[in-house]
Amino acid sequence: MTILPPQSAGDVAAETIGSSAMRKLVAGMALLAAAPVMAQEVEPDGPDIVVTAGKPLNLDAKVLRAGQRRFVGDRAELAPNGALRFELWRGGGRIPATTVPITLRNDAGETVPVTVDGEGRIAFGDLPRGRWFLTAPAQSQGMSLRPIVLSTGTTPTDRRLGDLRLQCRVMLSMAKAQASLLAMPLMGLLDAIGGCESKRVHAFNRAERTLASATAMTSSGTQALEISKRGNAYLAPLADRTLGNEVRVKIVYR
Q1: CA pair distance 85, 149, nearest whole angstrom
Q2: Which helix (H) or strand (E) holds 167?
Q3: In the predicted model, is pLDDT for residue 195 greater than 70?
Q4: If I label 142, which of 21, 86, 110, 241 is the partner at 20 to 30 A Cα–Cα?
Q5: What is the pLDDT of residue 253?
Q6: How does DSSP assign 184-199, residue by residue?
Q7: In the predicted model, what is the mean pLDDT of residues 146-166?
């Protein structure tokens, strides 16, 4: 998820969470306090939930639990047949989790294996209690972990809008669980303006390849969606209340 400079003092977007999150969130709060400014050219690059930024993957399981709780709480409303999975990414490409020896590990050195589905995505069941971490070896440097919600009969190129809405909520819940105390005021502000359902929150979704098109298939016809300048992400109409959760969002690769 990508933060965009505000066009007015009230405009906010969701933030990338990672080692530089504090600096970006503080900058975002400073922008909110400033006078209205002109929008700048920003290259959205999709939703990075956990960016390890040069360090091996080491994610507190409380962040995963927060995402799971939000998924369970909102599933009936948005994605009754949806499944929550997690993807590993590095740079602009998704990495099949089968190629990385990832485990859950606690401070005592105990480990729990991680389940990976046939598409190379991580599928967590009930996470063990206590302080556990999702870890990977040194070659995981620069990796990001991203949730994805897919309902039965959908694919990454043919999504339900409800799945995308729930996915965004899961991302924000994970971001809150990882945010510092300094960042919490901005997270609260995101809630106050409506979170993922706010027109001020721009949730770009990263694609696995360069996009030729992204389209919402509405009852009144097709609606072309904004694609990032790099062509690797699209802006789903999460905030459009006229579009139901069963609306399909389809992307075509070049």
Answers
A1: 6
A2: helix 161-178
A3: yes
A4: 110
A5: 98
A6: HHHHHHHHHTTGGGST
A7: 97
